[in-house]
């Protein structure tokens, strides 16, 4: 079945402008969404999703109340939720392999909703802006087309993407909303920021930087964040970037140099330093096992000691 908007199948579109012209309520919903107050999410209840990661859980989860992600410029943040089971998945998509990623997100939610007869799948898309290279626009169309190809009925509820997530500041286009959270108990989706992006923030950034594919990082049945095992080879050439100016790093390592959050360059440098410190990924995964993190009573993520 196609992607559905107000219970009608989405017709073929050639631009996001066409989508919003045909569905003015989506434009209105986007305006309402981006005017919601920004929530600073408490890390004690949060499961943070980095670029090219996804995570899914249900309202029965005692370890996670909010799944969230931010720092999206041309990237899109995707929330898929089953209204019957309450199962929800959030993904941070950068266009690396949209067509293989979308079925993973659908499966993540449907596999947690097996016993549920009632309800429907609802989709919320946030991200992108009017960038010069049209990277956001292409990703918007690809994500919509990939959901259109799924066999399940999927209802598009929120679509705050590309031109509907664009603002001009001092002559420069940038996103209005860079981050979102989803309340696992209620399904509420809201603009959000995250001062804490753990666990294993540097390791996870290194995985994406070295070309890792979309990874589901959470086992909701056990309340465990599961990272890796990742695979990368020594690459001393990347040390070159550490001696470059901030402007050079932005120009070559970002899809949207003028719109990045202020910590982007430092984040890149920290990731490169991590890779230079750990040139061989095998040492981080003894016995080829993933790194596992559980939530302590204090609300922190702590690495599980594996036998």
From TrEMBL:
Molecular function in Gene Ontology: protein-N-terminal asparagine amidohydrolase activity
GO BP term, pick one: ubiquitin-dependent protein catabolic process
Residue ranges the record marks as coiled coil: none
A Gene Ontology term for the protein's cellular component: nucleus
Name assigned to this protein: Protein N-terminal asparagine amidohydrolase isoform X1
């Amino acid at each position: 079945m196609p992607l559905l908007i107000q219970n009608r199948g989405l017709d073929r579109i050639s631009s996001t402008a066409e989508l919003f012209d045909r569905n003015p309520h989506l434009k209105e919903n986007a305006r309402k969404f981006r005017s919601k107050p920004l929530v600073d999410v408490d890390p004690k209840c949060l499961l943070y999703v980095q670029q090219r990661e996804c995570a899914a859980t249900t309202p029965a989860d005692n370890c996670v109340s909010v799944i969230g992600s931010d720092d999206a410029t041309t990237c899109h943040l995707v929330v898929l939720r089953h209204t019957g089971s309450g199962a929800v998945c959030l993904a941070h998509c950068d266009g690396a392999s949209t067509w293989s990623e979308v079925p993973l997100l659908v499966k993540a939610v449907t596999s947690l909703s097996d016993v549920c007869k009632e309800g429907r799948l609802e989709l919320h898309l946030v991200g992108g802006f009017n960038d010069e290279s049209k990277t956001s626009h292409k990703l918007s169309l690809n994500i919509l087309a990939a959901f259109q190809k799924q066999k399940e009925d999927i209802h598009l509820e929120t679509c705050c993407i590309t031109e509907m997530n664009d603002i001009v500041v001092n002559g420069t286009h940038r996103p209005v909303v860079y981050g979102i959270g989803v309340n696992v108990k209620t399904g509420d989706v809201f603009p959000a920021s995250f001062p804490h992006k753990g666990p294993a923030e540097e390791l996870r950034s290194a995985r994406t930087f070295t070309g890792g594919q979309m990874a589901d990082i959470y086992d909701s049945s056990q309340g465990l964040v599961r990272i890796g095992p990742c695979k990368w080879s020594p690459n001393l050439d990347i040390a070159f970037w550490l001696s470059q100016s901030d402007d050079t790093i932005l120009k070559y390592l970002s899809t949207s140099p003028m719109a990045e959050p202020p910590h982007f360059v430092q984040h890149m440098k920290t990731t490169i330093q991590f890779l230079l410190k750990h040139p061989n990924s095998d040492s981080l995964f003894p016995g080829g096992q993933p790194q596992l993190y559980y939530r302590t009573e204090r609300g922190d993520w702590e690495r599980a000691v594996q036998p």
